[in-house]
């Protein structure tokens, strides 16, 4: 995936932009009431360039045993990147490039275009708990032991013919304080199934967005009216009933459009309008890893 600063400036070649359908259903984790969804969200990580993470603080080896020393993450806000001040979350930092989620204690799944080169692995960190935890506070303080390196890319697929788009990466150490997400084992999600997406739209802190459903099902991906943006690429798309991962968010409609004020606003359309957002089936990944 292209760096976020470029995503806000122009649409990338592989159509990774996203959009709002109907009401904007994104929520900060502090506003989520369900303990079950909070636990799932805790197993979602953001990909941040290593250069954008302060070096201060002393961390342990990760998990419950690591010493927790806070470091503050700061970065350009949506407003400083030309998005209108009236936009939701306009004053929050935007430092993430992609989203990902745990499928076992050392393995993260993300979009294939997020891990297109070896440098995408070596020059990035995967960070848990990049989220807003206090009402009215837009800054984010991370614990050093929640920052993980990418040890290697286990599998990467970015196929323009099938539009398969996923990557599986091994972290530099085990994540012992979070539960890997449950995933669909076989079959395909059906049209009309209610969905929830969890990730980092526009590189913002963690957002949970429900109120979506499957529009259509293809051979290697399904289409849904998910409220997602660039930065959500790699997000877990979950069945709202079973809470299992159905797919990985990979493509969609345009994020932002020009406004009369000279800044940009989210593109908003009806629930059944626009091209929809594409998610690669999680079962594609499982089948690929078995080969």
Question: TL;DR of this structure?
Answer:
The chain is mainly beta.
Question: How would you describe what is shown here?
Answer:
The protein is mainly beta. The chain has a domain at 34-171: Beta Barrel (Thrombin, subunit H). The chain is 9% helix and 34% strand. It has four helices and 19 strands. The strands form five sheets. It has a six-stranded antiparallel barrel. Strands 3-5-6-10-9-7 form a six-stranded antiparallel barrel. Strands 1-18 form a two-stranded parallel sheet. A hairpin with a 6-residue loop joins strand 9 and strand 10 (165-171). The longest helix is centred in the C-terminal third of the chain and has 9 residues, at 282-290.
What name goes with the CATH superfamily of one domain?
A: Trypsin-like serine proteases
Structural class of the secondary elements? mainly beta
Proportion in β-strands: 25-35%
Under CATH, the topology of one domain can be stated as: Thrombin, subunit H
| CATH class placement of one domain | Mainly Beta
The H/E string reads HEEHEEEEHEEEEEEEEEEEEEH
Please report the number of helical segments. 4
Low-confidence stretches: 1-16, 57-67
Distance between the termini: 26 Å
- Which term fits the overall shape? globular
Task: Give a quick account of the main beta sheet: strands, pairing sense, barrel closure.
Answer: 6 strands, antiparallel, barrel
Please count the beta strands (DSSP E, at least 2 residues each). Answer: 19
Give the helix proportion (percent range).
under 10%
